[in-house]
Specification:
The protein is of the alpha/beta class. It folds into two domains: about 290 residues, Alpha-Beta Barrel (TIM Barrel); about 120 residues, no CATH class. About 40% of the residues lie in helices and about 10% in strands. It contains 16 helices and eight strands. The protein has a six-stranded parallel β-sheet. Strands 7-8 form a two-stranded parallel ribbon. Strand 2, helix 3 and strand 3 form a beta-alpha-beta unit. Helix 2 packs across helix 3. The radius of gyration is 24 Å and the shape is globular. It starts with a helix and ends with a helix.
Length: about 425
């Protein structure tokens, strides 16, 4: 099998891993080296099936000793297997970089022989890139659960960002669908990476030229929809991971049925894309808007509203806290107003130092008045000619009427015949709610 056949197999096998971040570190070019990295991020392009292709996103091998029931590369599945050598993959990465096809590398792997051997192969690949080819570009590598701590540390000194997939939200789910893995085997290296990042930050303060360990941080991914976990459980777990391990991102991947099994959703089950979308919206609220998981969902309402995004749903359920006066409200409360994002809230704080604001001013600042109008007053007055009732608020925020109930709600598709509006695209790209 030549290297391009391997590339075809192993890039296709990597497409289900969504934890493909590509920013967070500055590294200037150097004499005799190739490439650099910028903290502001990489400009992404997308293939026809929606994959990000700014990074060479590839598996070292799709051969695996594990038999995770949800995984395309499980050992019991009949697929073509391939594996690079460290030299092949390093040279391929450099050649692609020189041709401006890619701006960095995202490297993961199936577990072949054992976790330590797999980790050693990844280390050899990254060592060739960093030392032999003097590559200074961006590298994101997946840590291998069960690998020796010393190998994990070597990997972190070669990569910009590391990640380790938590896979499923519960230990019970892992026992059922991934019996070769345990919660401890995943959380232990996650804790190690977190500790090393913290220690490294302290070392760099004391010793300016100390080697950097995963300077762009670490992240994780979990599969949504393969098990019957509530959205509240997933959101609580996400919050706990951020707080305990200081993750940069938690990624969510809607489960795509690929085989018939009694423990998995049937093959005709549609991937829960809307649920995945709601989780990302709620994740944004946790990280940037000051919300706690228990504010977004609770035991009485453990799953997301399919009609309203989490922020709008919270606002509708807490109308007693609105309207807020835009000229006096604190920053934390402005962030809770639908239609006001982080940037527009900061602009409001700056603008109102020069004088009181009115609704036309808010529109110029970037506030989405279609949503914010129900929750704000300017100079003590509501939006002119505003018709206010809970039903009107829900209908306007959802963007449509649902005469037959919420069961008719469908997920917008990237390939829908109706083109998305500029506002839709901006919301998707910026995360503004």
């Amino acid at each position: 099998m030549d290297v391009f056949e391997k590339l075809t197999i192993l890039t296709d096998a990597a497409k289900y891993d969504v934890a493909c971040t590509s920013s967070g570190v500055d590294r200037a070019g150097a004499a005799g080296g190739i490439g650099n990295a910028a903290a502001c991020g990489i400009c992404h392009s997308f293939s026809a099936d929606g994959r990000c292709i700014s990074l060479l996103k590839v598996l070292f091998t799709n051969a695996c000793i594990y038999d995770c029931k949800y995984c395309l590369n499980r050992r019991s599945n009949d697929v073509r297997r391939a594996a690079f050598t460290p030299q092949e993959l390093a040279q391929l990465t450099i050649e692609f970089y020189r041709r401006n096809y890619i701006e960095g590398l995202f490297l993961s792997s199936g577990v072949f022989k054992n976790p330590d051997y797999t980790c050693e192969q990844l280390i050899k690949t990254l060592s060739l890139l960093r030392n032999e080819y003097s590559f200074r570009g961006y590298i994101h590598v997946k840590a291998i659960p069960g690998a020796d701590a010393r190998l994990i540390e070597q990997l972190g000194l070669l990569a910009d960002r590391m990640s380790i997939n938590i896979e499923l939200p519960t230990s019970e789910g892992l026992k059922q669908l991934a019996p070769d893995k345990t919660k401890q085997s995943i959380l232990k290296p996650m804790g190690l990476i977190h500790s090393r990042i913290q220690e490294n930050a302290h070392d760099i303060v004391q010793y300016r030229h100390a080697p950097k360990f995963a300077p762009a941080g670490h992240s994780t991914q979990m599969i949504v929809g393969a098990t019957k976990d509530s959205d509240l459980h997933i959101l609580r777990l996400t919050q706990a991971l951020y707080r305990k391990y200081t993750l940069k991102r938690v990624f969510f991947s809607a489960y795509i049925p690929m085989q018939e099994h009694a423990l998995l959703p049937s093959l005709d089950t549609k991937p829960p894309l809307l649920r995945e979308h709601r989780l990302y919206q709620a994740d944004w609220l946790l990280r940037f808007y000051g919300f706690d998981a228990e504010e977004i969902l609770d035991d009485a309402h453990p799953d997301f509203n399919p009609v309203l995004d989490p922020k709008c749903n919270w606002a509708v359920n807490h109308l007693d806290q609105f309207p807020v006066e835009v000229n006096r409200a604190p920053y934390e409360m402005l962030l809770r107003v639908p239609g006001i994002g982080v940037k527009s809230a900061k602009r409001i704080l700056i603008a109102r130092k020069s004088g009181s604001l009115d609704f036309p001013d808010l529109k110029r600042i970037g506030v989405v008045l279609k949503r914010a109008q129900f929750f704000l007053t300017c100079r003590g007055k509501r939006m002119p000619q505003l018709k206010f009732s809970p039903e009107t608020v829900v209908r306007t925020l959802s963007g449509q009427s649902f005469p037959q109930g919420i069961s008719d709600v469908t997920q917008l598709s990237l390939f829908a015949s109706d083109s998305p509006t500029k506002e839709d695209m901006q919301k998707c790209l910026s995360g503004q709610l």
